[in-house]
Amino acid sequence: MLLQPIVNLVAILSKKGLKRAIISPGSRNAPLTIALARHPDIQTFSISDERSAAFIAMGMAQSSKEAVAICCTSGSAAYNYAPAVAEAFFLEIPLIVLTADRPKEWIHQHDGQTIYQTDIFGKHVKKSFEIGADYSHPDAIWHIERTVNQAVNLANTFPKGPVHINIPLREPFYPLENEVVEFDRNVRIIERTKTEAILSTEVWAELLQKIEQYDNILIAGGQDDYQPELSEVLAKIQAEFQIPVLGDIISNLSFEAISKHDTFLPKADAELAPELLITFGKSFISKSFKTYLRKHKAIEHWHLSLNEHLIDTFQSLTQVLAVEPLYFFKKMLEELDFRQFKNGDEEERDGEYLNTWQKAETKANVYIENFFSESFHQVSLNEFYAIKQIMDALCPNSQLHLANSMSVRYANYLTVSANKKIEVFANRGTSGIDGCVSTALGAALTTDKLVYLLVGDLAFFYDRNALWNRYVPDNLRIILLNNHGGGIFRMIDGPSKQAELNDYFETVQSYKADTTAQEANLEYFFVDNIEKLSASIEAFCSKEGKAKLIEIETNAVNNTEVFKKFKEGFVY
Q1: Between 180 and 26, whose confidence is greater?
Q2: What is the Cβ-side half-sphere exposure of residue 28, based on CA atoms within 13 angstroms?
Q3: What is the pTM of this model?
Q4: Does one domain contain both 353 and 419?
Q5: What does the pLDDT look like over 401-452, one tens digit per residue?
Q6: How cofactor binds (record note) (predicted)?
Q7: Quick check: is 176 in a domain?
Q8: What per-residue confidence (pLDDT) applies to 567?
Q9: CA–centroid distance for 18 within its chain
Q10: Is residue 473 within 8 Å of 522, Cβ to Cβ?
Q11: pLDDT at position 509, please?
Q12: Taking burial as the number of CB atoms within 10 A of a residue's CB, which of 47, 184, 379, 405 is the most buried?
């Protein structure tokens, strides 16, 4: 075949573990499309909208913990990948971005679909690569093999992330009729040895001395994967050594960690302030938590991260420990256990600090349950109440995807039961509303679990092209909160007091999702009162039947009043 090196490029991807690729139709990328589609070990999907395609791939990679390729034609198609590529970069999700291109001499020559694609994603990829447009010379073939190996190795090296390979292609693009595409079994594979970062005995001695020095130690987890083993270790540290562990809903801590901090921290004084703060994971949703720790700064703040960027979220960072959280906390638990065994009861920690946090947590739990009593909400349905009822009804061992804006914030106040073992995902890398539906759909295509998506109306309609394909899986469940506008802007002091609120911040719209659901062949539930909600929840949340969408229509003004009452009503 004329473009055999491109066929071999795909063979290398497969041999390095690539199992899935999302292709957006085009002509310039035809050689890549044909090679990906005909490879026996790569599952391919055709998604026309490149923006949605990239988010679907990101959802697949996030859920499967495996790199996924995306492939598009030349021109503006590549730019449509940008939002998902940026999100994947900050969430540290591996994507292999393959963009077909015109040869360099044809750029800016009034020829079709030509833009400057070299380094098009800037700093939002781990690295950009480009191969030459001519493949006949042995050095060119060597360059392609080396480039693809390096790109995949880099995407899968911690911190993982997207890599970009720009591929100029000359015509002809297509094999002859009945021409067999053969994949070279002897393509060269270059592996990168994985290493494990550890801390020296001397460093551990210093850290343990400081842990024993401080009475008020807080461990806090940012956004992270669902890791039962890590949760088990942290649960033991909290129980045995009286060190509170806190996490947002996206921290995926599957034990009774501190999780209702959004409710009580705005009313708390300095008694919860840590002397030593140990953090891991990525971003925190809770503005209350970030504000509290920036006001009451820890004496020392250790952050566990292999990321080269110095991230100082709480403006108190004193030390970056370049190790995996599981390694650190397992070693910390072992060392503390040994020291306690060696020294006896005299080394047991005072539990007053943990007790203070747990008292606040218990009070918040009681307050939340009382607030959502049926008697309080008989007047009219509001979205906060609706979310509480649905989150309580989610099936165990499922996934919950949270769209940005109010959806993720509501969920963070309520959290999910640790006993249900629900994995929680959210696009908090850039925290945009674009791609939330696509990400959840991509995840649903990689798992047998039920995948729930909690999404507001603007985020849903902005990304409904996620449903414009033939792959919508039966295990997808979409919870659509339709208040006919960007309700969050009524809840923020700044825009809520402006004359432009309705037209330029809230962006009032009159759409409903019934037509979209019908076109995408989703089972559709419409809810606009408490009785309908109660009657629909069980059928919607169940594993039976095809993909489902429940549209919960509420009044934005009423939602704001209820949420304001909730936040103001808690007494610390």
Answers
A1: 26
A2: 24
A3: 0.94
A4: no
A5: 999 989 999 999 999 999 999 999 999 999 999 999 999 999 999 999 999 9
A6: Binds 1 thiamine pyrophosphate per subunit.
A7: no
A8: 93
A9: 20
A10: no
A11: 79
A12: 47
Rounding to the nearest 10 degrees, give the CA dihedral for residues 559, 565, 566, 570. 170
pLDDT reading at 376 higher than 60: no
Strand, coil or helix: 27:
coil
Tens of pLDDT, residue by residue over 163-200, are 999 999 988 888 777 788 888 888 899 999 988 899 99
Task: Determine the Cα angle at 310 with ends 307 and 313, to 5°.
Answer: 110
Q: Do residues 324 and 284 both lie within one domain?
A: yes
| Longest pairwise C-alpha distance within the chain | 82
Q: Examine residue 196 and state whether it is found in any structural domain, yes or no.
A: no
Same domain assignment for residues 226 and 315: yes
Closest CA to 113 of 193, 26, 32: 26
Among 360, 383, 404, residue at a domain's last position: 360
Number of Cβ atoms within 10 Å of the Cβ of 2: 17
Amino acid type, 566: F
- The verdict on 442 and 555 lying in the same domain is yes
**Is residue 149 a part of any domain in this protein?**
yes
Q: Which residues make Cβ contacts (< 8 Å) with residue 505, sequence separation at least 6?
A: 486, 489, 495, 498
Both 48 and 154 in one domain: the answer is yes
Output the pLDDT for position 548. Answer: 98
462/493 same-domain check: yes
Together in a domain, 328 and 349: yes
Residue 179 is assigned to a structural domain of this protein: no
Contact 44, 23 (CB under 8 A): yes
Domain limits for position 320: 201-360
Q: Any long-range contacts for 355-361 (C-beta under 8 Å, 24+ apart)?
A: 355/242, 356/271, 356/272, 357/218, 357/244, 357/246, 357/258, 357/272, 358/244, 358/258, 360/260, 360/261, 360/264, 360/268, 360/272, 360/572, 361/258, 361/259, 361/260, 361/261, 361/264
Number of domains forming the structure of the chain: 3
